[in-house]
Write a structure and sequence with these properties.
CATH class: Alpha Beta
Radius of gyration: 16 Å
Strand content: 35-45%
CATH topology: Alpha-D-Glucose-1,6-Bisphosphate, Chain A, domain 4
Distance between the termini: 33 Å
CATH superfamily: START domain
Order of helices and strands: EHHEEEEEEHH
Helix content: 25-40%
Number of strands: 7
Number of helices: 4
């Protein structure tokens, strides 16, 4: 399944980039994220809970960020499985600065969902994937823009190099 879109931010590109590279922010923005822990440089292990139709369950997912070109692009690889099935995908994130200080994020990815969840909820998978993607980016916009509204002395998004528990 193909996921593509564009999201506008009032926050500047560097602030959005910091949010996209901050595991605490990503964990808060991911729908159904129960936990997320570092597993290497730009690699994270997460537990996500979501469902397709009547099939709900936990997935253990590895998120890996590659091909970084700060503050413009990176590639996100996703690989996970659980009782309801598996999820595997890859997508690119591209950030462009806008006149007036905002930013536009463009994403383009492919996602595969298989197993029991895919067999039973086949007709719903596309709709649910798009809803989850929309929820993630809505939360990311809120996180990035709340930092812009705060004073520069106490931003809510810590720098990505800060310690992550």
């Amino acid at each position: 399944m193909k996921l593509q879109g564009e999201v506008a931010f009032e926050a500047n590109r560097e602030t959005v980039w910091d949010a996209l590279n901050n595991p605490e922010v990503i964990a808060k923005c991911l729908p159904g994220c129960e936990s997320m822990e570092p597993a290497g440089e730009d690699v994270f292990e997460a537990v996500l809970k979501f469902g397709v139709g009547p099939i709900t369950g936990q997935y253990r997912v590895t998120l890996k960020i590659t091909d970084k070109n700060p503050p413009q692009t990176y590639v996100l690889q996703v690989d996970g499985s659980g009782k309801p099935g598996f999820v595997k995908g890859q997508g690119s994130i591209k950030l462009q600065a806008q006149d007036g200080g905002g930013a536009v994020l463009r994403y383009d990815g492919d996602l595969q969902i298989g197993g029991l969840a895919a067999r039973i909820g086949q007709r719903m998978i596309g709709t649910i994937s798009k809803q989850l993607t929309k929820q993630f980016f809505s939360r990311l916009v809120e996180a990035a823009e709340s930092t812009t509204e705060d004073s520069q002395d106490s931003p809510q998004i810590p720098h990505p190099s800060s310690n992550f528990p």
